Amino acid sequence: MAKKTKFYVVWQGRQTGVFTDWKECEAQIKGFEDARYKSFDSIQEAETAIQRNYWEYVQKKENAAKAIAKVAPANIGQPIKNSIAVDAAWNTATGDMEYQGTYLQTGERIFLQGPFKDATNNIGEFLAIVHGLAYLQKNNSDIPIYSDSRTAISWIKKKHANTKLQLTPRNKPVFEMLQRAERWLASNTYPNKILKWETEYWGENPADFGRK
Q1: Which of 14, 50, 155, 212 has the largest count of CB atoms under 10 Å?
Q2: Any idea where this protein resides (predicted)?
Q3: What pLDDT score was predicted for residue 153?
Q4: What pLDDT sits at residue 100?
Q5: String of b and e for 110-144 (b: at least 16 CB within 10 Å)?
Q6: What pLDDT shows up at residue 68?
Q7: Residue whose C-alpha is closest to residue 194's, from 104, 120, 82, 84
């Protein structure tokens, strides 16, 4: 019987993408700290997976154990499926920041922005929420937005990003985005609730980049 072909998705490694040969996949992940990869039985599954979040397919055992051990209290409950989740990632080595938003029910990525030079994670979280609000307004949707950043949520309420980051030529585009975001908040109203993603009870934010 012929050996069944496997398709390997590498989300985080020396090179990312879909590989049809294990040796080629192994070369991307072996010795690579915190590599992210998984095998699939069909090319269709693999091509879909590479466009989505690693955590939709693979959950760390310790996070799964916590999710089983901790039952959300009544005042927290379970996340609303008809919603979007947003998150940011900040590279401590380079200072690069990026953010994205996903539709909770399907895991579909709605938007991805970055990387941006010399930014912060809080700025990314703030921009992600505003981007989500603008996206939902454009689509005439009143569904909620989840963020795991209390800081970013408080900035949204104040309509101001209270960052201490210094302006430099490298991060000037980020400050221009912040100004546009604050202007948008000042001149628009929205019905969407901004809700805290309860990682302790629900596991990782679905929009997480999987780089922890």
Answers
A1: 155
A2: Cytoplasm
A3: 96
A4: 95
A5: bbebbebbbbbbbbbbbbbbbbbbbbbbeeeeebb
A6: 45
A7: 84
Integer angstrom CA distances of residue 162 from 12, 50, 155: 32, 35, 7
Structure-token pair, residue 52: 């989505």
118 is in an annotated binding site: no
What domains does the chain contain, in order, with CATH numbers? 7-66 (3.40.970.10), 84-196 (3.30.420.10)
Q: Is 182 one of the annotated binding-site residues?
A: no
Tokens of 113: 């922005």
Q: Give every residue of the chain whose pLDDT is below 70, as ranges.
A: 1-4, 58-70, 211-212
Residue 143's pLDDT is what? Answer: 97
33 labelled ligand-binding: no
Question: Given the structure tokens 């909770």, which residue do they identify?
Answer: 104
User: What pLDDT score was predicted for residue 63?
Assistant: 52
pLDDT digits (tens, 9 = 90+) for 97-125: 999 999 998 889 999 998 999 999 999 99
